[in-house]
UniProtKB/TrEMBL annotation:
CDD domains: SANT (cd00167). This is TTF1 factor. It comes from the Eukaryota. It comes from Odontophorus gujanensis (marbled wood quail). SMART domains: SANT. It holds the Pfam family Myb_DNA-bind_6. GO terms for biological process: termination of RNA polymerase I transcription.
Length: 349
């Protein structure tokens, strides 16, 4: 396909395709477009966001089957071939002969690149090594000073995954404040969010008839734009004194206070009633995995709030009321909340 046709056809499945590089669009057209069309025929939408447990299991199944077909003896050799220079040529040949790209993505309605990154995260033995020691943090700072954002090189030097060292450096690269937010920090956060949203809007409207010369203050921003995924590491850099997750949590609170005009949604009987409503709705949904939930659809159980606020309240419920919740599946957590916690909350109310 020529580039314009590829953009047009992919646009049906990937809303943000206009923000991708030409190289990425060409790759996606080759690897994904036919798959996307096949999923469409089956009535299966293309998914984004966190991978569900069902998808993780499918990736593991695909990898195990490919290993059985080719005789490659470990997922690490398959997904991190460069770590084995003596076997690299033979492994690469087997991957090409047996259509590795096609096999890895089998049964998963997502872009191949995202599936590949997820597989690497699942099977990287360097990915789950616990907390960083003080010595490791100092090494990470030193290696970054020497090699910049070459996370592949740094990960090899530290025997940690690429993602792990990149995220940890993001957390420790500047003095992080863990106390209450100052007025200056809040203003920096709001300015940073405004900048990235306006930048996104201008990019989306670049090919439209609307004038791009308007002052950005006059742009009308749909409320949904304020809830959409934002580049939090970029916002973190602009704020300077807070880790990206702190920025995200604070922005959710700011939005909630603006929308609710500062009403205390989680106080007294309102808190109890909202918790009861949320537990009942989650139980009625009969969902097997939290990643299948659209939290925006549950906002009416609490009030006029962002979906992320509802998700945070569910997290508090399970942590507060469900013993050993880390060892339970999502459906087991919901069953416990419905059978054990709900009667208690209704009695209190």
């Amino acid at each position: 396909l020529d580039l314009d046709t590829a953009k047009q056809e992919l646009g049906e499945f990937i809303p943000h395709v206009g923000q991708l590089s030409d190289h990425s669009i060409r790759k996606m057209a080759g690897r994904d477009l036919m798959r996307f069309k096949q999923f469409k025929k089956q009535g299966i939408p293309i998914k984004f966001g966190r991978f569900s447990q069902k998808e993780n299991n499918q990736i593991k199944k695909n990898v195990e089957e490919f290993l059985a077909i080719t005789g490659i003896d470990s997922p690490e050799k398959l997904l991190f071939t460069s770590r084995y220079p003596e076997e690299k040529a033979a492994i690469s040949r087997l991957k090409a002969e047996h259509l590795f790209c096609q096999k890895l993505a089998e049964g998963i309605p997502r872009a191949w690149r995202l599936i590949y990154y997820r597989a690497r995260k699942i099977f990287d033995p360097n990915n789950y090594k616990g907390r960083y020691t003080t010595e490791e943090k100092e090494k990470l700072k030193k290696y970054h000073a020497l090699h910049g954002n070459d996370w592949k090189k740094i990960s090899e030097m530290m025997s940690r995954s690429n993602l792990s060292v990149a995220m940890k450096y993001s957390e420790i690269k500047s003095p992080i404040n863990y106390g209450p937010w100052s007025k200056e920090e809040i203003q920096k956060l709001m300015n940073a969010v405004e900048e990235v949203i306006v930048k996104r809007l201008k990019s989306e409207n670049a090919n439209s008839h609307s004038s791009s010369k308007k002052c950005h203050r006059s742009l009308l921003i749909d409320r949904e734009k304020l809830f959409q995924k934002l580049p939090w590491t970029e916002i973190e850099t602009k704020v300077g004194t807070r880790y990206w997750r702190q920025c995200k949590q604070k922005w959710t609170l700011i939005l909630t206070n603006k929308i609710t005009k500062g009403q205390k949604l989680y106080k007294g009987t309102k808190r109890l009633q909202a918790s009861i409503n949320l537990i009942k709705r989650l139980y009625e949904m009969k969902v097997e995995d939290a990643n299948e939930i659209n939290w925006e659809e549950l906002t009416d159980t609490v009030g006029d709030v962002p979906g992320s606020y509802v998700q945070a309240k569910f997290y508090k419920l399970k942590v507060s009321y469900v013993p050993f919740w880390r060892t339970k599946t999502f459906s087991e957590i919901i069953d416990y909340l419905f059978e054990e916690t709900l009667p208690e909350l209704e009695e209190k109310l």
